[in-house]
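Running this now, will post back.
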Amino acid sequence: SIGLPHSALTSKPSPSERHKPTLSAMGACLSLARCRGIADKVGSHKGRLRLGGRLPPDMGSRLTLVFPYPTLTEIRPMGRTLILDTSRPHESMDAYLAEPSGTPKGGIVVIQEIFGVNAHIRSVADRFAAEGYVAIAPALFDPVQKGVELGYDQEGMQKGSKLIAELGLLRPMQDTDIAARLIADQYKVKVGTVGYCWGGTVAVLAALRLGLPSSSYYGSRNVPFLPEPAKANVIFHFGERDHSIPPEMVEKHRELKPEMDTWVYPADHGFNCDARASYDEPSAKLAWERTLAFFARELK
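Update: finished.
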């Protein structure tokens, strides 16, 4: 086992983290051991866990761990932030990692909306961890701006729209691949992706081009890519009241990818996000159940 340096684990806790139980680093190593390369190469950088370098042993440190809870209202943060090296010079990428309490049944890359890796996206990763998956949410905006967490208001919408216009789709797809390979290599599991809004299209590209089974929620930029041959399956989720994705666009998914499931719910855009006014609990619950069944089948 390894030791965890005090400097890597003593950053100021967020309000949501202040009441989490703690375990000694000796016990924490048992959890981190499943992540082999991560556990062997954890270092400190502004209170986050960093890939790269080796550590001197220090078994006196403490690491916060939270074990999974069964329902959305009971889910509590169980993850931590890593810093991933990219293939681009002088550039790294943060990623939120949430682990299950037992042996992982698979890996999920959680692909953000245009609002960054905010509290909602981290909670989605936590929910997948509670279902037995290793979940990682890479901060895909990092190449253009670090630490983006936007609200679901007009200001957040405008800021996020500018960021995705600057970023494009190629780099997010590449960074999704980096995150997926990390999970596959370190946990020895099959990996899929789930993406929302803008991230829903990144998830589609991950399936078509990278071979990662994906659950795509209300991706309004999907259609131009649908003629491409698919290397993995996709399950599509749309809201029938989503004006950004009219029925004819939804129908294109059925026409061009008839072998894949395309579901429409009595809901609006963003129906899965409980931080948005458009949240629709019955639709979100059904889409969640279908997504879990999809990954149980595709990642076994």
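The first strand starts at residue 22 and ends at 24. More later if anyone needs it.
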